[in-house]
Write a structure and sequence with these properties.
Helix content is about 25%, strand content about 30%. By secondary structure, the protein is of the alpha+beta class. The protein folds into three domains: about 240 residues, Rossmann fold (3-Layer(aba) Sandwich), CATH 3.40.50; about 100 residues, Beta Barrel (Elongation Factor Tu (Ef-tu), domain 3); about 140 residues, Peptide chain release factor 3, domain III (Alpha-Beta Plaits). An eight-stranded antiparallel β-sheet has the order 27-24-26-25-29-30-28-31, covered by helices on one side. A seven-stranded mixed β-sheet has the order 2-3-1-4-5-11-6, with helices on both faces. A six-stranded antiparallel β-sheet has the order 18-17-23-14-15-22. Strand 19 and strand 20 form a beta hairpin. The protein starts with a helix and ends in a 5-residue tail after the last strand. Guanosine-5',3'-tetraphosphate binds next to helix 2. It is found in: Cytoplasm. Keywords: Cytoplasm, GTP-binding, Nucleotide-binding, Protein biosynthesis. Pfam families: EF-G_D2, GTP_EFTU, RF3_C. Belongs to the TRAFAC class translation factor GTPase superfamily. Classic translation factor GTPase family. PrfC subfamily.
Length: about 525
């Protein structure tokens, strides 16, 4: 194996998803702690409780306590190089989650053991399932009162439609949490409560399941229950089938308590055993082998003004083959141009370290002078192929956005177009109209809040937002139609997007039917074709 293929085969890239508060941030911090990436997991600088997770860096995220955008973290563990892609927990940002999943080879789903499957778990899981990637489940907070583990697995299977396979099994919960039984090794990792805040690795006491001392250690009742559980799991449970895991049909499940560091390391080790190295990616020239030495990557996220100290724009790319080296010359397929990849950064909270080299599977952020769009491909080889595109979700909420101070027109136009290029919002104007009045469409209403906040903070522009009653959008496929002559219901509106495509906005499905029934030949599409 060459040094390059060895590096790629030791890479793992996963996205982490959860309902807010299930413990995604805590688990991420503990991964980093085990990887030795940071000394004290998570404690970067004070917010209310001196806790501010390394992966939350946008001001609005800190204030609202929600994750608005995804960030990327990298750490090393057991000879592997692991990239974690954080995702926003709120469903209003599920489009960002989808794009992030495009850059990941698998997903980790965190579930609160006392709550089970929650609203956002359901919604984010749906987005995950669209990608058909392996999903690893971590059932967290076992140090608190928890639902029955059988019930939890059943809930996941019923509500999310994925089979589960418990890799380990909890013994008790809350104050009576005794540890987990590792099924393959047939041993019990005993729970030793780490001190609150737990900044050190968990101490581990491991006892074989048939060791006579176990009964005394966990108590007669728990011992008896464990024997029954072991028998039941071995007898009736699903068979472990790694192929089904890789197809996203069977989710390996581990139990633990991220806060007390318990079960994090075993989870990480199981994850490394069962997850795949970077997989081939589909392009218009067929699948691209991650072991190919020619560099290729695609842009899955664009983010401006991530840090008030660096007011610049970054394009985040997933490397799909070859090696990235700082300042390398590449070919930007969509822009049809040779460019130099400059100021490449890896993200580590506020501190952005310059990357010298990165490999297939890694995520890099490069300085974007405004040339990249989401989905763009970058290559170094002779073949100028393009990776499969990233679909745009159809917006479901619309508002008319006006600039409060007409003197600030330039900042307003700059801000709103930059934010639209990041893919957080979609903007439309009246046919042939300018930027005086803009209609903004979003997938989730919270995006409007983010828009107003960012325009004010990053561009010093205040806006007036008037909600509009539209709920559906359709692209007019026919290029030769004059929409002004169409027979449309009175509450249908026609607009155009930044690329000059014509679109129709409808308040209800009745309006859509009206348009297609009364205008023969009119072709409407739910997604933009370009
Ligand atoms: P999120 O990113 O999924 O939104 O969740 P986050 O990690 O921020 O965790 C949400 C809350 O749950 C935090 O408490 C965190 O300390 C707690 N938590 C996470 N994992 C565990 C666990 O294994 N056991 C227990 N008992 N609690 C856990 P908080 O009160 O919101 O924050 P803090 O003030 O304690 O920091």
């Amino acid at each position: 194996m060459s040094a390059f293929t060895d590096k790629v085969s030791k890479r793992r890239t996963f996205a982490i998803i959860s309902h807010p508060d299930a413990g995604k941030t805590t688990l991420t911090e503990k991964f980093l702690l085990y990887g030795g990436a940071i000394q004290e997991a998570g404690m970067v600088k004070g917010k209310q409780h001196m806790r501010h997770a390394v992966s939350d860096w946008m001001e609005i995220e800190k204030q609202r306590g929600i994750s608005v955008t995804s960030s990327v973290l990298q750490f090393n563990y057991g000879g592997y190089c692991i990239n974690i892609l954080d995702t926003p927990g709120h469903q209003d940002f599920s489009e960002d989650t989808y794009r992030t999943l495009m850059a990941a080879d698998s997903a980790v789903m965190v579930i609160d053991a006392s709550k089970g499957v929650e609203d956002q778990t359901r919604k984010l899981f749906k987005v995950c399932a669209m990608r058909h990637i392996p999903i690893f489940t971590f059932i967290n907070k076992m140090d608190r009162e928890a639902k029955d583990p059988y019930e939890l697995l059943e809930e996941i299977e019923q509500e999310l439609g994925v089979e589960t396979y418990p890799i380990n099994w909890p013994i008790g919960c809350g104050k009576e949490f005794k540890g987990v039984y590792e099924r393959e090794k047939r041993e019990v990792i005993r729970f030793v409560a780490a001190s609150k805040g737990a900044r050190n690795k968990a101490e581990e006491i491991i006892t074989a399941v048939d060791d006579p001392s176990l009964k005394e250690a966990i108590g007669d009742d728990y011992y008896a229950t464990l024997q029954d559980d072991v028998e039941l799991l071995d007898g009736a449970g699903a068979v472990f089938d790694l192929d089904r895991v890789h197809e996203g049909k069977l989710s390996p499940v581990c139990f633990g308590s991220a806060l007390t560091n318990f079960g994090v390391e075993p989870f990480l080790e199981h994850f490394l055993d069962f997850s795949t190295p970077p997989m081939p990616r589909m392009s218009d020239e067929g699948p691209i082998d991650p072991m190919s030495e020619d560099f290729s990557a695609f842009v899955f996220k664009i983010q401006a003004n991530m840090n008030s100290r660096h007011r610049d724009r970054m394009a985040f790319m997933r490397i799909c083959s070859g090696t990235f080296t700082k300042g390398m010359d590449v070919y930007h397929v969509q822009g049809k141009k040779k460019i130099k990849l400059n100021q490449s950064k890896s993200l580590m909270a506020d501190e952005r370290e310059e990357i010298q080299e990165a490999y297939s599977g890694d995520i890099i952020g490069v300085f974007d002078p405004g040339i990249f769009s989401i989905g763009d491909t970058i290559v170094t080889g002779k073949k100028h192929f393009a990776f499969e595109g990233i679909p745009t979700f159809a917006p479901e909420h619309f508002a008319r956005i006006r600039n409060r101070d007409t003197m600030k027109r330039k900042q307003f136009v700059k801000g709103i177009t930059q934010i639209a290029q990041e893919g957080a919002i979609q903007i439309f104007t009246e046919l042939g109209g300018g930027f005086e009045e803009i209609i903004v469409g979003v997938v989730g209403v919270l995006q409007f809040e983010v828009l107003a906040y960012r325009l004010k903070n990053e561009y010093n522009v205040e806006i007036v937002n008037t909600p509009l009653p539209y709920q559906f959008i359709r692209w007019v496929v026919n290029k030769d139609i004059d929409v002004k002559t169409l027979n449309l219901s009175s509450d249908t509106k026609y607009v155009e997007d930044l690329k000059g495509n014509t679109l129709l906005l409808f308040s209800n499905t009745w309006g859509i039917n009206w348009a297609t029934e009364r205008n023969s030949g009119l072709e409407l599409a739910e997604f933009s074709k370009n």
